Efflux transporter outer membrane subunit
Amino acid sequence: MKIHRHFALAGGALLLAVMLCGGCSLLRDTPPPPPQVPERWLTSPQAATPGYREFWSAFNEPDLMTLQARALRQNNSLKLSALSLKLYRIQADLSRLNLSPDAALSATAGTSRPLTTENGIDPAISRSAGASASLIWQPDIWGQYGASAEAAALDAQAGEADWRAARLTLLAAVAQAHWQTGLLNRVRTDNLHNLEVARETLHLAEVRHQAGATDMADVLLARQRVSEAQGTLSQTEQQLAAARTTLTQLTGDTPETHLPELQAVPDTPLPLPAAGLPVSLLARRPDVRAAELRVRSSVARADATRLSFYPAFSLTGSVGTASQTLTNYLSNPVGSLALSLSLPFIQFRTARLSNEAAGVNAQIAAVQFRQTLYAALQQVENALSDRTHLDEQAGWLRLQLTQAQESERLSQARWLAGATDIQPLLDAQTARQQTELSLMQNNLQRRSNAAALYVALGGDYTAE
Protein backbone atom coordinates (compact mmCIF):
# COMPACT_ATOMS: atom_id res chain seq x y z
CA MET A 1 0.00 0.00 0.00
CA LYS A 2 2.85 2.38 0.82
CA ILE A 3 4.45 1.82 -2.55
CA HIS A 4 1.19 2.53 -4.35
CA ARG A 5 0.72 5.67 -2.27
CA HIS A 6 4.22 6.89 -3.16
CA PHE A 7 3.52 6.28 -6.83
CA ALA A 8 0.31 8.24 -6.59
CA LEU A 9 1.99 11.18 -4.87
CA ALA A 10 4.84 11.28 -7.38
CA GLY A 11 2.46 11.02 -10.30
CA GLY A 12 0.28 13.79 -8.90
CA ALA A 13 3.24 16.10 -8.43
CA LEU A 14 4.44 15.43 -11.95
CA LEU A 15 0.97 16.04 -13.37
CA LEU A 16 0.76 19.34 -11.48
CA ALA A 17 4.12 20.43 -12.89
CA VAL A 18 3.06 19.62 -16.43
CA MET A 19 -0.18 21.56 -15.99
CA LEU A 20 1.72 24.59 -14.67
CA CYS A 21 3.99 24.46 -17.70
CA GLY A 22 1.23 24.54 -20.30
CA GLY A 23 2.08 26.65 -23.31
CA CYS A 24 5.83 26.35 -22.71
CA SER A 25 6.45 25.97 -26.47
CA LEU A 26 5.86 29.72 -26.72
CA LEU A 27 9.18 30.22 -24.95
CA ARG A 28 11.12 29.19 -28.07
CA ASP A 29 12.73 31.92 -30.13
CA THR A 30 12.59 32.15 -33.92
CA PRO A 31 15.68 32.68 -36.12
CA PRO A 32 16.29 36.21 -37.40
CA PRO A 33 14.94 37.03 -40.87
CA PRO A 34 17.34 36.44 -43.80
CA PRO A 35 19.36 39.39 -45.13
CA GLN A 36 18.15 41.45 -48.06
CA VAL A 37 19.08 39.96 -51.44
CA PRO A 38 19.03 41.85 -54.78
CA GLU A 39 16.34 40.88 -57.25
CA ARG A 40 18.71 40.41 -60.20
CA TRP A 41 22.40 40.34 -61.09
CA LEU A 42 24.19 43.53 -62.13
CA THR A 43 25.69 41.71 -65.13
CA SER A 44 23.09 40.04 -67.32
CA PRO A 45 23.89 36.30 -67.40
CA GLN A 46 24.42 34.64 -70.75
CA ALA A 47 22.23 31.78 -71.89
CA ALA A 48 23.06 28.61 -69.98
CA THR A 49 24.55 25.58 -71.68
CA PRO A 50 21.98 22.74 -71.77
CA GLY A 51 22.77 19.95 -69.33
CA TYR A 52 25.01 22.09 -67.13
CA ARG A 53 24.63 19.65 -64.24
CA GLU A 54 27.09 17.46 -66.13
CA PHE A 55 29.46 20.38 -65.97
CA TRP A 56 32.87 18.71 -65.77
CA SER A 57 32.14 16.16 -68.48
CA ALA A 58 31.18 19.07 -70.78
CA PHE A 59 34.89 19.95 -71.02
CA ASN A 60 35.44 16.59 -72.77
CA GLU A 61 38.69 15.92 -70.87
CA PRO A 62 38.86 12.29 -69.68
CA ASP A 63 42.11 12.94 -67.80
CA LEU A 64 40.44 15.71 -65.81
CA MET A 65 37.61 13.39 -64.78
CA THR A 66 40.18 10.77 -63.75
CA LEU A 67 42.11 13.24 -61.61
CA GLN A 68 38.95 14.52 -59.93
CA ALA A 69 37.80 11.01 -59.10
CA ARG A 70 41.25 10.29 -57.67
CA ALA A 71 41.09 13.43 -55.53
CA LEU A 72 37.63 12.54 -54.21
CA ARG A 73 39.03 9.20 -53.03
CA GLN A 74 42.35 10.35 -51.60
CA ASN A 75 42.32 14.05 -50.71
CA ASN A 76 43.11 14.43 -47.01
CA SER A 77 41.19 17.67 -46.49
CA LEU A 78 38.04 16.05 -47.86
CA LYS A 79 38.59 13.05 -45.59
CA LEU A 80 38.82 15.37 -42.58
CA SER A 81 35.59 17.05 -43.64
CA ALA A 82 33.89 13.65 -43.89
CA LEU A 83 35.13 12.69 -40.42
CA SER A 84 33.85 15.97 -39.01
CA LEU A 85 30.45 15.21 -40.54
CA LYS A 86 30.50 11.75 -38.94
CA LEU A 87 31.30 13.31 -35.57
CA TYR A 88 28.45 15.82 -35.93
CA ARG A 89 26.02 12.97 -36.59
CA ILE A 90 27.25 10.99 -33.60
CA GLN A 91 26.83 14.03 -31.37
CA ALA A 92 23.29 14.50 -32.71
CA ASP A 93 22.46 10.89 -31.81
CA LEU A 94 23.91 11.38 -28.33
CA SER A 95 21.87 14.53 -27.83
CA ARG A 96 18.64 12.70 -28.64
CA LEU A 97 19.35 10.19 -25.86
CA ASN A 98 18.51 12.87 -23.28
CA LEU A 99 14.87 12.64 -24.37
CA SER A 100 14.56 9.03 -23.14
CA PRO A 101 14.95 7.54 -19.63
CA ASP A 102 18.32 6.28 -18.40
CA ALA A 103 18.48 2.69 -17.16
CA ALA A 104 21.06 1.15 -14.84
CA LEU A 105 21.74 -2.36 -13.50
CA SER A 106 24.00 -3.32 -10.62
CA ALA A 107 24.85 -6.46 -8.66
CA THR A 108 26.84 -6.94 -5.46
CA ALA A 109 28.26 -9.92 -3.61
CA GLY A 110 30.47 -9.94 -0.53
CA THR A 111 31.93 -11.95 2.31
CA SER A 112 32.88 -10.62 5.77
CA ARG A 113 34.58 -12.13 8.85
CA PRO A 114 35.59 -10.46 12.13
CA LEU A 115 39.35 -10.45 12.74
CA THR A 116 39.09 -11.15 16.47
CA THR A 117 37.91 -14.26 18.29
CA GLU A 118 35.42 -14.28 21.10
CA ASN A 119 35.86 -16.79 23.96
CA GLY A 120 38.24 -18.77 21.80
CA ILE A 121 35.61 -19.41 19.20
CA ASP A 122 36.32 -18.50 15.59
CA PRO A 123 33.85 -15.91 14.32
CA ALA A 124 31.29 -16.92 11.75
CA ILE A 125 31.64 -15.88 8.13
CA SER A 126 28.74 -13.90 6.74
CA ARG A 127 27.87 -13.60 3.09
CA SER A 128 25.62 -11.14 1.30
CA ALA A 129 24.39 -10.57 -2.23
CA GLY A 130 22.12 -8.11 -3.95
CA ALA A 131 20.99 -6.73 -7.25
CA SER A 132 19.15 -3.62 -8.30
CA ALA A 133 17.70 -2.03 -11.41
CA SER A 134 16.85 1.64 -11.72
CA LEU A 135 15.22 3.92 -14.24
CA ILE A 136 15.77 7.68 -14.19
CA TRP A 137 13.62 9.98 -16.26
CA GLN A 138 13.92 13.73 -16.54
CA PRO A 139 10.81 14.85 -18.44
CA ASP A 140 11.53 17.57 -20.97
CA ILE A 141 8.79 19.84 -19.64
CA TRP A 142 10.21 23.13 -20.88
CA GLY A 143 11.74 21.78 -24.08
CA GLN A 144 15.38 22.14 -23.03
CA TYR A 145 16.47 18.71 -24.25
CA GLY A 146 14.42 19.11 -27.41
CA ALA A 147 16.19 22.40 -28.14
CA SER A 148 19.59 20.81 -27.56
CA ALA A 149 18.71 17.89 -29.83
CA GLU A 150 17.48 20.31 -32.49
CA ALA A 151 20.72 22.30 -32.28
CA ALA A 152 22.81 19.14 -32.65
CA ALA A 153 20.72 17.98 -35.62
CA LEU A 154 21.15 21.37 -37.31
CA ASP A 155 24.90 21.21 -36.67
CA ALA A 156 24.96 17.82 -38.40
CA GLN A 157 23.14 19.27 -41.41
CA ALA A 158 25.61 22.16 -41.47
CA GLY A 159 28.46 19.66 -41.33
CA GLU A 160 27.05 17.90 -44.39
CA ALA A 161 26.84 21.25 -46.20
CA ASP A 162 30.48 21.90 -45.24
CA TRP A 163 31.44 18.56 -46.76
CA ARG A 164 29.58 19.37 -49.98
CA ALA A 165 31.30 22.76 -50.16
CA ALA A 166 34.71 21.16 -49.61
CA ARG A 167 33.97 18.59 -52.33
CA LEU A 168 32.91 21.26 -54.82
CA THR A 169 35.94 23.43 -54.06
CA LEU A 170 38.25 20.43 -54.45
CA LEU A 171 36.89 19.58 -57.90
CA ALA A 172 37.51 23.15 -59.07
CA ALA A 173 40.99 23.23 -57.53
CA VAL A 174 41.97 20.00 -59.31
CA ALA A 175 40.71 21.41 -62.61
CA GLN A 176 42.63 24.65 -62.08
CA ALA A 177 45.86 22.80 -61.23
CA HIS A 178 45.40 20.47 -64.22
CA TRP A 179 44.92 23.39 -66.61
CA GLN A 180 47.79 25.31 -65.05
CA THR A 181 50.08 22.36 -65.71
CA GLY A 182 48.88 22.26 -69.32
CA LEU A 183 49.56 25.97 -69.73
CA LEU A 184 53.09 25.66 -68.36
CA ASN A 185 53.81 22.66 -70.59
CA ARG A 186 52.80 24.76 -73.60
CA VAL A 187 54.79 27.75 -72.34
CA ARG A 188 57.82 25.51 -71.92
CA THR A 189 57.44 24.31 -75.51
CA ASP A 190 57.22 27.92 -76.70
CA ASN A 191 60.24 28.84 -74.57
CA LEU A 192 62.26 26.14 -76.32
CA HIS A 193 61.11 27.47 -79.68
CA ASN A 194 61.94 31.05 -78.67
CA LEU A 195 65.39 29.93 -77.53
CA GLU A 196 65.95 28.32 -80.92
CA VAL A 197 64.81 31.52 -82.67
CA ALA A 198 67.18 33.55 -80.49
CA ARG A 199 70.09 31.29 -81.41
CA GLU A 200 69.25 31.53 -85.11
CA THR A 201 69.08 35.32 -84.81
CA LEU A 202 72.46 35.30 -83.06
CA HIS A 203 73.93 33.17 -85.84
CA LEU A 204 72.62 35.61 -88.48
CA ALA A 205 74.02 38.55 -86.52
CA GLU A 206 77.45 36.92 -86.33
CA VAL A 207 77.43 36.11 -90.06
CA ARG A 208 76.40 39.67 -90.94
CA HIS A 209 79.05 41.10 -88.60
CA GLN A 210 81.76 38.97 -90.20
CA ALA A 211 80.56 40.19 -93.60
CA GLY A 212 80.71 43.80 -92.40
CA ALA A 213 76.97 44.32 -92.83
CA THR A 214 76.41 45.20 -89.16
CA ASP A 215 78.40 46.20 -86.12
CA MET A 216 79.28 44.29 -82.96
CA ALA A 217 76.37 45.84 -81.03
CA ASP A 218 73.89 43.65 -82.91
CA VAL A 219 75.87 40.55 -81.95
CA LEU A 220 75.93 41.56 -78.29
CA LEU A 221 72.20 42.26 -78.26
CA ALA A 222 71.52 38.89 -79.92
CA ARG A 223 73.67 37.12 -77.32
CA GLN A 224 71.77 38.90 -74.56
CA ARG A 225 68.52 37.68 -76.04
CA VAL A 226 69.79 34.07 -75.96
CA SER A 227 70.65 34.44 -72.26
CA GLU A 228 67.21 35.90 -71.54
CA ALA A 229 65.53 33.01 -73.36
CA GLN A 230 67.53 30.48 -71.33
CA GLY A 231 66.57 32.21 -68.07
CA THR A 232 62.90 32.30 -69.06
CA LEU A 233 62.99 28.58 -69.85
CA SER A 234 64.51 27.78 -66.45
CA GLN A 235 61.87 29.86 -64.68
CA THR A 236 59.08 28.09 -66.55
CA GLU A 237 60.48 24.67 -65.62
CA GLN A 238 60.54 25.75 -61.98
CA GLN A 239 56.90 26.83 -62.16
CA LEU A 240 55.96 23.58 -63.87
CA ALA A 241 57.55 21.52 -61.09
CA ALA A 242 55.61 23.52 -58.48
CA ALA A 243 52.35 23.06 -60.41
CA ARG A 244 52.88 19.30 -60.54
CA THR A 245 53.47 19.22 -56.78
CA THR A 246 50.28 21.19 -56.20
CA LEU A 247 48.30 18.73 -58.30
CA THR A 248 49.67 15.68 -56.45
CA GLN A 249 48.82 17.32 -53.14
CA LEU A 250 45.22 17.83 -54.25
CA THR A 251 44.90 14.23 -55.42
CA GLY A 252 46.42 12.93 -52.18
CA ASP A 253 49.51 11.49 -53.87
CA THR A 254 53.20 11.80 -53.10
CA PRO A 255 55.18 14.45 -55.05
CA GLU A 256 56.99 11.88 -57.19
CA THR A 257 53.71 10.44 -58.53
CA HIS A 258 53.30 10.90 -62.28
CA LEU A 259 49.79 12.06 -63.11
CA PRO A 260 48.15 12.66 -66.50
CA GLU A 261 49.08 16.08 -67.92
CA LEU A 262 47.89 18.35 -70.68
CA GLN A 263 50.52 19.54 -73.13
CA ALA A 264 48.41 22.63 -73.82
CA VAL A 265 45.13 24.05 -72.56
CA PRO A 266 42.41 23.20 -75.11
CA ASP A 267 40.70 26.16 -76.73
CA THR A 268 37.19 24.72 -76.94
CA PRO A 269 33.70 26.08 -76.20
CA LEU A 270 33.09 26.33 -72.47
CA PRO A 271 29.99 25.19 -70.54
CA LEU A 272 27.97 27.88 -68.81
CA PRO A 273 25.76 27.04 -65.79
CA ALA A 274 22.43 28.76 -65.27
CA ALA A 275 22.87 31.77 -62.99
CA GLY A 276 19.28 31.84 -61.77
CA LEU A 277 18.25 34.58 -59.35
CA PRO A 278 20.39 35.89 -56.47
CA VAL A 279 17.93 34.55 -53.90
CA SER A 280 18.57 31.01 -55.20
CA LEU A 281 22.04 31.10 -53.63
CA LEU A 282 20.37 30.51 -50.25
CA ALA A 283 19.59 26.98 -51.42
CA ARG A 284 22.27 26.35 -54.06
CA ARG A 285 25.44 27.35 -52.21
CA PRO A 286 26.44 24.74 -49.61
CA ASP A 287 28.53 27.22 -47.60
CA VAL A 288 25.61 29.67 -47.46
CA ARG A 289 23.32 26.82 -46.47
CA ALA A 290 25.75 25.80 -43.71
CA ALA A 291 25.90 29.36 -42.37
CA GLU A 292 22.10 29.58 -42.33
CA LEU A 293 21.82 26.27 -40.48
CA ARG A 294 24.30 27.47 -37.88
CA VAL A 295 22.16 30.54 -37.24
CA ARG A 296 19.21 28.27 -36.49
CA SER A 297 21.44 26.01 -34.41
CA SER A 298 22.74 28.92 -32.33
CA VAL A 299 19.18 30.11 -31.69
CA ALA A 300 18.14 26.61 -30.57
CA ARG A 301 21.22 26.38 -28.36
CA ALA A 302 20.40 29.77 -26.83
CA ASP A 303 16.91 28.43 -26.08
CA ALA A 304 18.40 25.36 -24.43
CA THR A 305 20.68 27.54 -22.31
CA ARG A 306 17.83 29.72 -21.12
CA LEU A 307 15.51 26.78 -20.47
CA SER A 308 18.19 24.97 -18.48
CA PHE A 309 17.63 27.47 -15.65
CA TYR A 310 13.92 26.61 -15.33
CA PRO A 311 12.81 24.17 -12.62
CA ALA A 312 13.72 20.59 -13.49
CA PHE A 313 12.01 17.39 -12.38
CA SER A 314 13.59 13.97 -12.08
CA LEU A 315 11.67 10.75 -11.52
CA THR A 316 13.64 7.74 -10.29
CA GLY A 317 12.29 4.24 -9.89
CA SER A 318 14.31 1.26 -8.70
CA VAL A 319 13.86 -2.39 -7.80
CA GLY A 320 16.44 -4.32 -5.82
CA THR A 321 17.06 -7.42 -3.73
CA ALA A 322 19.34 -8.18 -0.81
CA SER A 323 20.06 -11.49 0.94
CA GLN A 324 22.67 -13.02 3.19
CA THR A 325 22.67 -16.19 1.13
CA LEU A 326 22.85 -16.69 -2.58
CA THR A 327 20.04 -19.22 -2.41
CA ASN A 328 17.63 -16.52 -1.22
CA TYR A 329 18.81 -14.02 -3.79
CA LEU A 330 15.33 -13.11 -4.99
CA SER A 331 13.47 -13.53 -1.74
CA ASN A 332 13.66 -9.91 -0.53
CA PRO A 333 12.64 -7.57 -3.34
CA VAL A 334 12.56 -3.85 -2.54
CA GLY A 335 11.00 -1.18 -4.75
CA SER A 336 11.28 2.60 -4.53
CA LEU A 337 10.09 5.64 -6.41
CA ALA A 338 11.37 9.19 -5.94
CA LEU A 339 10.56 12.55 -7.44
CA SER A 340 13.13 15.34 -7.16
CA LEU A 341 12.88 18.99 -8.04
CA SER A 342 15.83 21.30 -8.77
CA LEU A 343 15.66 25.09 -8.95
CA PRO A 344 18.69 26.29 -10.94
CA PHE A 345 17.14 29.71 -11.57
CA ILE A 346 18.32 30.88 -8.15
CA GLN A 347 21.82 31.11 -9.70
CA PHE A 348 20.90 34.55 -10.95
CA ARG A 349 24.33 35.75 -12.04
CA THR A 350 25.23 32.46 -13.74
CA ALA A 351 21.90 32.40 -15.54
CA ARG A 352 22.23 35.99 -16.74
CA LEU A 353 25.80 35.58 -18.02
CA SER A 354 25.06 32.22 -19.65
CA ASN A 355 22.05 33.65 -21.47
CA GLU A 356 24.05 36.69 -22.59
CA ALA A 357 26.84 34.48 -23.93
CA ALA A 358 24.35 32.31 -25.82
CA GLY A 359 22.70 35.41 -27.27
CA VAL A 360 26.04 36.80 -28.43
CA ASN A 361 26.87 33.47 -30.10
CA ALA A 362 23.56 33.66 -31.96
CA GLN A 363 24.36 37.21 -33.09
CA ILE A 364 27.82 36.11 -34.26
CA ALA A 365 26.27 33.30 -36.31
CA ALA A 366 23.80 35.77 -37.87
CA VAL A 367 26.60 38.17 -38.85
CA GLN A 368 28.66 35.30 -40.28
CA PHE A 369 25.64 34.22 -42.30
CA ARG A 370 25.24 37.68 -43.82
CA GLN A 371 28.97 37.84 -44.47
CA THR A 372 28.95 34.46 -46.23
CA LEU A 373 25.88 35.32 -48.28
CA TYR A 374 27.19 38.70 -49.44
CA ALA A 375 30.57 37.17 -50.28
CA ALA A 376 28.76 34.55 -52.39
CA LEU A 377 26.79 37.26 -54.20
CA GLN A 378 30.03 39.14 -54.88
CA GLN A 379 31.71 36.01 -56.25
CA VAL A 380 28.88 35.43 -58.70
CA GLU A 381 28.84 39.08 -59.79
CA ASN A 382 32.61 39.04 -60.34
CA ALA A 383 32.48 35.75 -62.25
CA LEU A 384 29.70 36.99 -64.54
CA SER A 385 31.53 40.26 -65.21
CA ASP A 386 34.89 38.54 -65.73
CA ARG A 387 33.38 36.15 -68.27
CA THR A 388 32.17 39.03 -70.45
CA HIS A 389 35.47 40.90 -70.31
CA LEU A 390 37.63 37.81 -70.84
CA ASP A 391 35.67 36.93 -73.98
CA GLU A 392 36.21 40.46 -75.28
CA GLN A 393 39.91 40.32 -74.46
CA ALA A 394 40.29 37.02 -76.31
CA GLY A 395 39.07 38.63 -79.52
CA TRP A 396 41.45 41.58 -79.17
CA LEU A 397 44.39 39.33 -78.34
CA ARG A 398 43.85 37.21 -81.47
CA LEU A 399 43.88 40.37 -83.58
CA GLN A 400 46.93 41.64 -81.72
CA LEU A 401 48.79 38.38 -82.33
CA THR A 402 48.17 38.60 -86.08
CA GLN A 403 49.54 42.14 -86.08
CA ALA A 404 52.56 41.17 -83.96
CA GLN A 405 53.45 38.31 -86.30
CA GLU A 406 53.29 40.64 -89.31
CA SER A 407 55.38 43.25 -87.50
CA GLU A 408 58.03 40.65 -86.68
CA ARG A 409 58.18 39.51 -90.30
CA LEU A 410 58.63 43.08 -91.58
CA SER A 411 61.23 43.92 -88.92
CA GLN A 412 63.30 40.89 -89.84
CA ALA A 413 63.12 41.79 -93.53
CA ARG A 414 64.25 45.37 -92.84
CA TRP A 415 67.13 44.19 -90.66
CA LEU A 416 68.32 41.66 -93.22
CA ALA A 417 68.13 44.40 -95.84
CA GLY A 418 70.35 46.62 -93.69
CA ALA A 419 67.67 49.28 -93.21
CA THR A 420 67.80 49.05 -89.38
CA ASP A 421 69.87 47.57 -86.63
CA ILE A 422 68.77 44.43 -84.77
CA GLN A 423 66.89 46.16 -81.96
CA PRO A 424 63.55 46.60 -83.82
CA LEU A 425 63.61 42.90 -84.70
CA LEU A 426 64.26 41.89 -81.09
CA ASP A 427 61.46 44.18 -79.91
CA ALA A 428 59.08 42.68 -82.47
CA GLN A 429 60.00 39.15 -81.36
CA THR A 430 59.36 40.09 -77.73
CA ALA A 431 55.98 41.62 -78.60
CA ARG A 432 54.92 38.52 -80.52
CA GLN A 433 56.05 36.16 -77.76
CA GLN A 434 54.28 38.21 -75.09
CA THR A 435 51.07 38.31 -77.10
CA GLU A 436 51.17 34.53 -77.57
CA LEU A 437 51.62 34.12 -73.82
CA SER A 438 48.78 36.55 -73.06
CA LEU A 439 46.46 34.66 -75.40
CA MET A 440 47.29 31.34 -73.72
CA GLN A 441 46.77 32.89 -70.30
CA ASN A 442 43.44 34.29 -71.45
CA ASN A 443 42.37 30.82 -72.53
CA LEU A 444 43.28 29.49 -69.07
CA GLN A 445 41.48 32.39 -67.39
CA ARG A 446 38.31 31.74 -69.36
CA ARG A 447 38.30 28.08 -68.35
CA SER A 448 39.05 28.99 -64.75
CA ASN A 449 36.25 31.56 -64.88
CA ALA A 450 33.78 28.92 -66.06
CA ALA A 451 34.76 26.71 -63.11
CA ALA A 452 34.66 29.66 -60.70
CA LEU A 453 31.16 30.61 -61.84
CA TYR A 454 30.05 27.00 -61.44
CA VAL A 455 31.39 26.91 -57.87
CA ALA A 456 30.02 30.37 -57.04
CA LEU A 457 26.54 29.20 -58.09
CA GLY A 458 26.77 26.14 -55.87
CA GLY A 459 27.62 23.58 -58.53
CA ASP A 460 25.23 20.66 -58.69
CA TYR A 461 24.27 21.04 -55.05
CA THR A 462 20.54 21.26 -54.39
CA ALA A 463 19.07 21.69 -50.92
CA GLU A 464 16.42 19.15 -50.06
About this structure: Residues 1-26 have pLDDT under 50 and may be disordered. Residues 37-97+141-309+352-456 form a domain with the Outer membrane efflux proteins (OEP) fold (CATH 1.20.1600.10). The chain has one domain: 37-97+141-309+352-456.
